[in-house]
């Protein structure tokens, strides 16, 4: 692992620990940088904003690539759902609790509400681009991508215990089970 990658991961870990302990809104970037043993300037070289410490992820490009790789005759909703499933199944089991904690923090942080919407919009845009490359009309691609992202958001928030609906008890259903159910529903089953 390169020095940059180690520092990046150290900053993300420090932020997650601090956000979990004292809340996102109460944690400053200066405190995160101090805990990680770097300057605040270094933190901002790695993460453009405080919200990026939680919201930045590599899923969008990977999901878009997985959707583009689906069979060309496959219905757009099924292609999108199966593309998402492919990428999420690659998440190592030892990272699942970290994902749950990130989602809990995001759900509880008032200061992130606009950022969550922007982040979701970026995911929708990535899916729309991939679907359009497969030949799906832009309007249909936006409907598919928006429905998929909305459905996933509800399911993940409930799974993490941060949703507005009755939350799934921790340990009651694994991430893979929750995602399989919602993706089967959205994509019309397997």
Automatic annotation (TrEMBL):
UniProt-recorded Gene Ontology molecular function terms: DNA-binding transcription factor activity; transcription cis-regulatory region binding
Matches recorded under Gene3D superfamilies: Homeodomain-like, Tetracycline Repressor, domain 2
Keywords of this entry: DNA-binding, Transcription, Transcription regulation
Any Pfam family hit: TetR_C_14
Domain of life: Bacteria
Span of domain HTH tetR-type: 5-65
DNA-binding region: 28-47
Keyword Transcription set for record: yes
Matching InterPro entries: Homeodomain-like_sf (IPR009057), HTH-type_TetR-like_transc_reg (IPR050109), HTH_TetR (IPR001647), MftR_C (IPR041347)
Entry protein name: TetR/AcrR family transcriptional regulator
Source organism of this protein record: Streptomyces odorifer
